[in-house]
């Protein structure tokens, strides 16, 4: 990561444009309102486009030209992607859209509007806030409150545990396997893929909890970004539990404006697919992310198309009679589909993704890359994580002893010591910082 | 029983519990660590606290897999232990030397030098490895602690925690107590297999000498000399074609300090025979036996002078 002062000017430029756009949208009527909205959206998308997609676009043009035998030196830019650009541009766009829709008053205080875009806990990786939720909080006078410190610190502690104990330990295995796919068996790559499924969750949710907790300590409430996503019983439910702030952003500002499900059937399928395709592109300028997004879109469309056939099969097999088994099968199926899609998300290139998939389906041998210390750390971390999530999902009223204040103090202390003892402290950044 | 604790009481209680748990875990792990019967922790413990041989070999995996102590002992008549360890380089072994000298003065130390001990490297072949010595923080000497503190103030703060010193060694400590097979002979491990790929050129463009590493080599020399330890630098073979000037920095240091450099980096006996290699950087069992004999004879001749 680098600090390049000029990059602050990019953020400052979009803040100024969006700030005035908001005010003028509110003041204006008719097409003028629309014009100011377009200016604001264009400015944000332009910045995102130049920094994130310009070189990717040229790379593909170059490949296309070469396939026609045209060799050309295209004007690539030597630029780095500013940290969190995708997050704060989306947050800025949600502001002008909400002002345009009349759901939010334009913010007159430049400092407060700047804070809305640059609020440090969620600047680099979200949650992508809506102005209705956060702007009014910045107008309130905040005093340090013991309750907020306590609540925020607890949330942060859990975030640190997820990141340092679970995600970064899993990363040691995943990086070793995905970094040398040619040398590993299908079994190793399958284990690495399952590990990545939990790594990406603990890495990103861990960051979100740290962000939400640190904001809470200051007195601000940010939206929850994750709701135990791997307990989802379908792909659509998964997306209502995973990266909620982005899923709802796409729902409110893209899916609904496209007509949502209030259109004819094939248009509805198209709407779903295109939203996920764009969501994939949002994540990164690489075909791996495009395929990942498209795959999730296909999953959703297929789940709708096949719903009545699946219902018939389930009733024929009598699966739906036993609720526990049926839900278990649904959860596992969703987990497998999601994990499969994560292969594209994590792979270094499309060709490597296909090597991994081929090996998983054709090379499940006993030749496994063993790293016992990683497995052991992962076992402890995942056991604690799954116990907490199981309890919250299914047994929230059980294990009441865990609500005892002394027991809870011991649990928090134990978590702190487990971070010190089992945490990985030499790993890199959060995965979502790259977006 | 429901207790209504106020904020301050909770903070105090949590600090007390964390410090107590940290202390208890630290003490238990220290005991278990020192009792390991096999594996990495046992190896570390022996190297740091128990060696007594007059001839010690220091270095990375290229020392661990290349120097057979039995062969060297037979030739030199000096009991030998191979302190080489995979994945550790110069800084780690300077710590081992400090710990050894605190207990006794070996007669000879052979330091296997790797190019990673001289040049800057993108991968972490530097001070980061000192974290492996964390279990010995506050147990050897102030000089040893100062070496560990080279990793910066954050690392120094972290090492005040008793359990952090055993961070990531947890599993190795447990298996080291449960399993009791020793697969090494006086620290030496052999590798079976033959490298079949063609010899390649070492990619060594724009290598930059790492001054901090050079300083550590100089400290190593000073420490050995001032304690009457005869120091040899040794460079075992690569199955790679390397530029002739790549060892100039270490040759200069050796000449300046009157240290014998046993340079076999491009030894044709090895470079012409791929069947002596396990991979391009490591000799196999047969290669190690041959190399150990050569080194033992060279050391013996110098000692007889």
Structure description:
- The complex is a heterodimer of chains A (435) and B (305).
- Chain A folds into 2 domains: 6-139, no CATH class; 148-422, no CATH class.
- Chain A is 72% helix and 0% strand.
- Chain A is built from 17 helices and no strands.
- Chain B is of the alpha/beta class and 305 residues long.
- Chain B contains 12 helices and 9 strands.
- Chain B has helices at 7-34, 39-49, 61-64, 69-76, 90-103, 142-148, 153-158, 170-178, 211-226, 248-256, 268-271, 285-304; strands spanning 55-58, 80-82, 108-112, 200-201, 230-235, 240-241, 260-263, 277-279, 282-283.
- In chain B, a hairpin with a 2-residue loop joins strand 8 (277-279) and strand 9 (282-283).
- Chain B starts with 6 loop residues before the first helix and ends with a helix.
- The interface between A and B is medium-sized, with 24 and 29 residues.
Can you tag this structure with a few keywords?
heterodimer, A: 435 residues, 72% helix, B: 305 residues, alpha/beta, Rossmann fold, 5-stranded parallel β-sheet, two-stranded parallel sheet, 12 helices, 9 strands, 45% helix, elongated
Short description:
Chain A is mostly helical and 435 residues long.
Shape of chain B: elongated
SSE ordering of chain A: HHHHHHHHHHHHHHHHH
- Cα end-to-end separation of chain A: 13 Å
- Bulk shape of chain A: globular
Termini distance of chain B? 81 Å
Task: Quote the average pLDDT of chain A.
Answer: 90
Which topology of chain B does CATH recognise? Rossmann fold
CATH architecture title of chain B: 3-Layer(aba) Sandwich
Q: What does the largest sheet of chain B look like?
A: 5 strands, parallel
Radius of gyration of chain A: 23 Å
Write the layout of secondary structure elements.
The complex is a heterodimer of chains A (435) and B (305).
Chain A: H1 6-27, H2 30-67, H3 85-101, H4 110-118, H5 120-123, H6 131-139, H7 146-179, H8 186-218, H9 235-241, H10 244-255, H11 265-283, H12 287-305, H13 307-317, H14 323-346, H15 350-362, H16 372-394, H17 405-422
Helix pairs in contact in A: 1-2, 1-3, 1-4, 2-3, 4-6, 7-8, 7-16, 7-17, 8-14, 8-15, 10-11, 11-12, 12-14, 14-15
Chain B: H1 7-34, H2 39-49, E1 55-58, H3 61-64, H4 69-76, E2 80-82, H5 90-103, E3 108-112, H6 142-148, H7 153-158, H8 170-178, E4 200-201, H9 211-226, E5 230-235, E6 240-241, H10 248-256, E7 260-263, H11 268-271, E8 277-279, E9 282-283, H12 285-304
Parallel strand pairs in B: 1-2, 1-3, 3-5, 4-6, 5-7
Antiparallel strand pairs in B: 8-9
Helix pairs in contact in B: 2-8, 4-12, 5-6, 5-9
């Amino acid at each position: 990561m680098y600090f390049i002062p000029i990059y602050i000017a990019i953020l400052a430029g979009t803040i100024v444009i969006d700030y005035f756009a908001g005010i003028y949208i509110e003041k204006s009527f008719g097409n003028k309102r629309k014009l100011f909205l377009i200016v604001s959206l264009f400015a944000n998308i332009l910045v995102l486009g130049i920094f994130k997609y310009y070189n990717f676009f040229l790379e593909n043009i170059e490949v296309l030209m070469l396939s026609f035998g045209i060799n050309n030196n295209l004007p690539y830019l030597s630029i780095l992607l500013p940290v969190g650009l995708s997050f704060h541009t989306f947050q800025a766009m949600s502001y002008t859209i909400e002002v345009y829709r009349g759901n939010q008053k334009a913010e007159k205080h430049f400092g407060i509007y700047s804070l809305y875009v640059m609020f440090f806990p969620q600047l680099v990786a979200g949650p992508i806030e809506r102005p209705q939720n956060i702007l009014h909080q910045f107008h309130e006078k905040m005093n340090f409150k013991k309750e907020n410190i306590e609540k925020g610190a607890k949330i942060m502690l859990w975030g640190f545990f997820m990141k340092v104990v679970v995600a970064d330990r899993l990363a040691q295995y995943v990086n070793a396997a995905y970094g040398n796919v040619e040398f590993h068996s299908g079994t190793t790559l399958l284990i690495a893929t399952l590990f990545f499924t939990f790594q990406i969750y603990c890495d990103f949710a861990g960051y979100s909890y740290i962000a939400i907790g640190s904001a809470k300590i200051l007195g601000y409430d940010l939206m929850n970004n994750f709701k135990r996503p791997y307990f989802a019983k379908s792909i659509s439910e998964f997306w209502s539990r995973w990266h909620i702030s982005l899923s709802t952003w796409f729902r409110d500002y893209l899916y609904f404006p496209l007509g949502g499900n209030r259109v004819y059937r094939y248009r509805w399928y198209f709407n779903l697919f295109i939203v996920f395709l764009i969501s994939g592109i949002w994540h990164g300028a690489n075909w791996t992310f495009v395929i990942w997004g498209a795959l999730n879109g296909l999953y959703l469309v297929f789940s709708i198309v096949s719903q009545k056939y699946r219902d018939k099969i389930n009733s024929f097999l009598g699966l739906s009679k036993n609720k526990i088994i049926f839900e278990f099968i649904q959860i596992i199926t969703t987990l497998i589909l999601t994990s499969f899609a994560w292969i594209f998300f994590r792979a270094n290139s499309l060709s490597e993704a296909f090597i991994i998939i081929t090996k998983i389906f054709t090379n499940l041998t006993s030749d496994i890359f063993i790293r016992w210390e990683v497995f052991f750390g992962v076992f402890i971390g995942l056991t604690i994580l799954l116990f907490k999530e199981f309890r919250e999902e299914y047994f929230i009223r059980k294990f009441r002893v865990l609500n005892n204040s002394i027991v809870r103090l011991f649990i928090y202390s134990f978590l702190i010591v487990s971070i010190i003892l089992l945490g990985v402290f030499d790993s890199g950044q959060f995965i979502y910082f790259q977006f | 029983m429901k207790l209504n604790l106020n904020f301050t009481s909770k903070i105090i209680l949590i600090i007390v519990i964390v410090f107590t748990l940290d202390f208890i875990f630290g003490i238990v792990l220290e005991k278990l660590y020192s009792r390991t019967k096999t594996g990495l922790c046992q190896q570390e413990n022996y190297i740091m606290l128990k060696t007594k041989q007059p001839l010690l070999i220091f270095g990375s995996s290229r020392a661990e897999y290349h120097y057979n102590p039995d062969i060297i002992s037979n030739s030199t008549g000096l009991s030998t232990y191979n302190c080489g360890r995979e994945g550790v380089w110069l800084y780690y072994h300077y710590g081992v030397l400090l710990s050894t000298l605190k207990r006794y003065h070996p007669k000879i130390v052979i330091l296997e030098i790797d190019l990673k001990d001289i040049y800057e490297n993108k991968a972490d072949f530097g001070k980061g490895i000192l974290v492996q010595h964390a279990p010995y923080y506050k147990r050897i000497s102030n000089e040893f602690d100062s070496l560990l503190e080279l990793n910066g103030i954050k690392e120094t703060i972290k090492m005040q925690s008793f359990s952090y010193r055993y961070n990531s060694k947890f599993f190795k400590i447990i298996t080291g107590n449960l399993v009791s097979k020793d697969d090494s002979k006086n620290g030496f491990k052999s590798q079976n297999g033959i490298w079949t790929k063609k010899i390649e050129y070492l990619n060594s463009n724009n290598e930059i000498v790492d001054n901090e590493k050079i300083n550590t080599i100089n400290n190593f020399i000073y420490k050995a000399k001032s304690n009457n330890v005869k120091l040899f630098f040794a460079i075992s073979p690569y199955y790679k074609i390397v530029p002739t000037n790549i060892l100039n920095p270490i040759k200069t240091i050796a000449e300046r300090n009157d240290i014998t450099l046993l340079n076999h980096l491009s030894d044709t006996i090895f470079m012409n025979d791929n069947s002596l290699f396990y991979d391009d950087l490591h000799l196999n069992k047969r290669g190690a036996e041959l190399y150990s004999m050569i080194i033992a004879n060279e050391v013996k001749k110098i000692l007889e002078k």
